[in-house]
Amino acid sequence: MDLLVTYDVETTTPAGARRLRKVAKICEGYGHRVQKSVFEVVCRDADKVKLVAAIEAVIDPTRDSVRIYRLPAMALDDVEHLGRPRGIDPRGPFVI
Amino acid sequence: MTELLNTLYIQRPGTSLHLDGDTLRAFHPDDEPKTPPKRVPLVRLDHLVAFGGVNVSQELQLRCAADGRSVTYLTGNGRFLMRTVGPATGNPLLRQAQHRAADDHQQRVSISKAMIAGKIHNSRQVLLRTARDSSGFRQTALRASADLIAERLNLLRDATTIDEVFGVEGITARDYFAAMPHLVTRSKEWKVAGRNKRPPTDPVNCLLSFLYGMLRGAVHGALEQVGLDPYIGLLHGVRSGKPALALDLMEEFRPLLVDRLVFTLLNRRELSDKDFDHLPNGAYQLTDDGRKKVFTAWQKSRQRAWPHAYLRRDVEGALLPLVQARLLARHLRGDLAAYQPWTVA
C-alpha cells in the first residue's frame, strides 16, 4: 500500500527535538523523505502496523501530531511535482 | 495486495554500506561532501547483491542475517563468490522427501519431464509471439521452428529415463536457438548465430549468460525460502558445488523471463554497441553502464504480471520462482499428484 506520512513535532524543548529525531529515524526505516517532515512510504500491511506502533511509542500525544494518509493503490507513481525533484522512485529498482 | 520486495544491486567499486537505524546507508569517498547520503529502508529489501570492491559493514551483515535477508557477493564480472544467510530454517520432513525423490528414478523422470515440457511450451510461446509481430520470411521461419519444437513434446512423452529427457531437452534447445537470428531484428549487427558460452562471443549470448545468472540467483533463493535443498537435483545430477535443483527449476523460466527480455532490449535499441566491451579473447562483456541498464530492465520485468495456466491467475515475475518452488514442495510431500510447471496459457 502507498502511504504519505507527515508530522509536526514540537521542538521548543530539548526533549521535543529528541522526539523529532526519533520520529524521522523511524520514518527513514520505512520510506523516502520527500520534504522536511513528509515521507512517501510503500509497504505491506504488517509493516504499516509496525510503523504506527513505533511512532506511537515515541511521540508525546499532547504536543505532537502525526498524520498517515493511506493513498489509492499506486498513487505514488503519479505525483505532480514542482521544483526540486525527489531523488528516488518509490517503487523503482535500486542500483547504486 | 502483496508489495514486492526489492533487490539492491551495488556495483560501484569503493562503495561502503552501513547500517543506520533501520536503513542502509551507502557511502562513496568520491561523492561530494555536501550531497545527502543515499539511504534505502531495509524493510523494502529482501536481497543485497554486492559486486567487486563493495564493502558491507559487519553490523549490516549481521542485521541482514537476523532478518533472513541474504547478501550475495559477486566479482566485478558477475561471478558468484559467496552468499551469507542466517540460520537454516525450513522443514526437515520436506528435505527428507526431496532426498527420497532424488533416489527414486521414476519420480525423478516424471518431475523432470514436467519441467522440460514447461520449458518447451514456453520456448514455443517466445517463437509464436515474435512470429505474430513479424511478416514474410521471418514469420514463416519462426512458425516452422515452433512446429518443430511442438513435435519434440511427443518425444518427451515417450521418454522413460533421465538421459532421454536430457536428450529431448538438448534437441529442443538446439532447434530453438537455431531460430535466434529471426528473433533479433538487425541480427547481423549483433552477430547472432546461436547459443555459445564460457565465454559468450557475441552481445546476445553475453546478455543471456548474465541474466541466466540473475535468474539462477532468484530461483536458488526461492528454493531455500521454501525449505528445499538447492543442491539435490532431480534432472541435473548431483555434483559438489552445483546447485542442481536450482538449475532444474530454472528451465521453465528461461525462455519467457530471460530470452524474451534480451530480445526486447536489443530490438527496442535500449542497448547499443557501446554497452559492451569486446575483450581480446573474443569474449563480450557488459560495461558498467550497460550492466546498470540491464539491472533496471530486469528489475522492471520482475514486476510484470504473467498469466499462470495452472493457478489460473496472474503472478508477478519476481514471485514465479517462489510459487513454483511451493508447488514442487507440495508435490514432494505428496499433497499434489504431479508437479505442474509454469506455463502461460
What's the number of extended β-strand segments of chain B? 12
Tally the helices of chain A: 2
The separation of the N and C termini of chain A measures 25 Å
**Computed structural class of chain A:** alpha+beta
Mean pLDDT of chain A: 86
Q: Please trace the helix and strand order of chain A, writing H or E for each element.
A: EHEEHEE
Find the count of extended strands of chain A (DSSP E, 2+ residues): 5
User: Ranges of chain B with pLDDT <50 over ≥5 residues?
Assistant: none
Estimated radius of gyration of chain A: 14 Å
Q: Strand pairing plus helix content of chain B: what structural class?
A: alpha/beta
Give the overall shape of chain B, derived from the CA principal axes. globular
- Residue stretches of chain A low in confidence (pLDDT < 50, at least 5 long) are none
The total of helices of chain B stands at 11
Q: N- to C-terminal separation of chain B?
A: 23 Å
User: In which order are the strands of the major sheet of chain A placed?
Assistant: 2-3-1-4
Write the layout of secondary structure elements.
The complex is a heterodimer of chains A (96) and B (345).
Chain A: E1 2-8, H1 14-28, E2 31-35, E3 38-42, H2 45-58, E4 65-71, E5 94-95
Antiparallel strand pairs in A: 1-3, 1-4, 2-3
Chain B: E1 6-10, E2 16-20, E3 23-27, E4 38-41, E5 45-50, E6 55-56, H1 58-67, E7 70-74, E8 80-84, H2 92-103, H3 105-132, H4 136-158, H5 162-178, H6 180-183, H7 203-226, H8 244-250, H9 254-267, E9 276-278, E10 284-286, H10 288-302, E11 305-308, E12 313-316, H11 320-332
Parallel strand pairs in B: 1-5, 2-6, 5-7
Antiparallel strand pairs in B: 2-3, 3-4, 7-8, 9-10, 11-12
Helix pairs in contact in B: 3-4, 3-5, 3-9, 4-5, 7-8, 7-9, 7-11, 9-10
